[in-house]
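Extended Data, panel c. Modelled sequence:
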Amino acid sequence: MPTQIIVPPMGESVSEATVAKWLKKVGDAVRADEPLVELETDKVTLEVNAATSGVISEIKVQQGGNVGVGAVLGVIQEGTAAVSSPAASATTSAPPSAQKPVAANTSAPPASVQVMPAARKQAEDKGINPYDVPGTGKGGRVTKEDIASSAAQPAAPAPVMVQRAPQPQAATVSSGSRARAHEEERVRMTRLRQRIAERLKDAQNTAAMLTTFNEVDMSQITALRAQHKESFEKKYGTKLGFMSFFVKACVLALKEIPSVNAEIEGEDLVYKNYYDIGVAVGTAQGLVVPVVRDADKLNFAEIEKTIGDLGKRARDGKLTMADLTGGTFTITNGGVYGSLMSTPILNPPQSGILGMHATKERPVAVNGKIEIRPMMYIALSYDHRVIDGREAVTFLVRVKECIEDPERLLLGV
């Protein structure tokens, strides 16, 4: 009896997805709960698993097709024998003299090999064909760790180039001059990238957005981290980073300046008396903002573990809709990429976002003397419809005070 492969519910406000990649092809045997196809929504990438064991007898929506919830992606037929595709049947039924040998397309990825999105990106960066790397992940999937440990370095397939016709030469150019050919590579935007572009532009068009800056002396927090990082990791099994300090500092400042933790809903201002802090993570597919729930109730180790887990799942494409929804305030750290200063864009419907940047040694005046200190610029972008300038500046000063004097975080002052 045939079983349809159905697009499952994908979470609140998500009604459509794009078929990113089939992990099986027609004729492949599958087991119940085995991943069959990757769907890309505007927020996460998810897998559709087999509802029953059998053989893929039909694929109804090819890679790149758009589907809605409940749509039929393909069909699983009971049995274990391989099912021949129509093309294969036509070939085998033709007389031998009419059959022509077909050259193997070595650049096409084997449908049976499952490469995680983050691993695919890392392979492209290293010039590795990910489909030649043995997978050690669940179900034989190729992971980032497999790419990193692989010694194979086959040449990556060359991208398809589009060549424009040369532009007409001006009359003053000598006849011996040769026009330069322009090469382009056209790649379709992913659904996630389209959604990122849409949301960021909406934020600019809707909010009265502006940014205030300050600078932080990182001396105390750097010394504290250096002093305790080994014992911290030994006790809690996670590294002590700067992000947990900034999350704690923001929570303390949000409690003092509640408008930064508020949002506009119709004609109302909604003040959030909980602190779900979004932490921006860069992935191969684009920027995502998973949420650290109830950050005010977590200790430093719990915050570091949560951020580490969310970051890993983001890069592996394993975040769920629940991981990405409901944040009240966001922190983004461009410093990990070397950014010295930037103006972060709001994450709607939130009213504030803190931007961290690279720590650089700079000469600063300390008690009338010039000293070299590790300094970081921090930025708060905010919606002026909700937050006044005084409140925005006060918020940023509170964050600065907590980082420069970490004891404040322990005392809650």
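Residues 219-236 form the longest helix (18 residues). This feature is highlighted in the accompanying rendering.
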